[in-house]
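BUG: 3D viewer hangs when loading the predicted structure for this chain

Environment: internal workstation, default settings.
Expected: structure renders.
Actual: progress bar stalls at 90%.

Input used:
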Amino acid sequence: MKKIVDRFFMPIQYVILYSFNFIFSFKYKPSYSFVIGVEEIANCTYYLNRAFKNKSVSVNFTTNKFYKSNKYDYSISIENRYLAYFARMFYGPYLLAKLSNQADVFIYFWWTGFCNDREIEYKFLKYKKKKIVCIFVGDDIRSRKLLKERLVKENLDSYVYYDNYDVDKNEMRVKKVAFLSDTYADLAFSVKKSQVSYLEHYVNTFMYMIDDNLLDNCKFVVNDNKRIKIVHAPSNPILKGTPLVKAAIKKLELEGYNFEYIELINKSNAEVLSILNDSNIVLNQFYADMPGVFGIEAMAKKNAVLMSADYDNLPTNGQKPWIRTQYWEVYDNLKYLLDNPEIIREYADAGYEFVKHNYAEDKVREFYIDTFYEHKIIDDKSIFKK
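Structure tokens produced before the viewer hung:
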């Protein structure tokens, strides 16, 4: 049904886009460089826009139940998803027409766009001689079919064998997303191993960014009773390996270990971060090669983090800021920390320093500006200086 409605609106969106582009071409002149949107994924849109300050604007057409910044230059904040869908049908092409007359570069998070068919707007932006940057962050580009093939070769288990997902439908979508990026994007960011895909052109590894406020006044907490506090806060229990965590926790409890285990499911990011202020260990995710935003946040809050993320994907410079924990190692590695509590603080401090030197706003802004300049997305870095 949705496909039928989308097709019905395509010619209407096309007319809206080019009609308002003609009108706005007389009204606006370029006033900033970047448009960042149109989906909010773990505050990536919000943080990147904030890093570029007055040289960008943010667009968010969807709500994120875990991350609620609500500080966008343009957004659709209608709670009813059907009304929001129809509002987007008209507002999307209108806004694209307006912003294309004000900005030079369009940075996309996720696979959706201003219009139902992303190819319409890609062609439009190329017609307007704009630069296109695609930042892929997970299932927007990941091929379940190719991932399973890799897992079979490596004899590894993963969540893709357990979640209820329409693989055939997903393959059609990710193939098209990859094709459009290869065809129209001037630059793309992804993670080749974790986000195995059909992308053929060169991709950069994208950089996470966190709120600098998370790094302020952080200290390792020693509870009065010296009872270690362990947190697991999965956004999706199957994808993050929650059954593995529960099994490890239960076994350690039966063995008489004294700790407090806190499991946070369907809680907002703000609620979770408040708990991390006085926790000691975070059990993040155990099927992924990347830490995700939450893994970075947990280290910023001076927690020792257990996760399956691969050091090779990130700028660790030989450090070990977290305990790499494969899905079969959850119990063993957690037991190791409980048996050696002095090690917990060492990892907490190492993780904090790793985040501070790689994912603070100034560091990530510099990374993107240098990368954009290197790939000729921008031709002058000085305009982005504070």
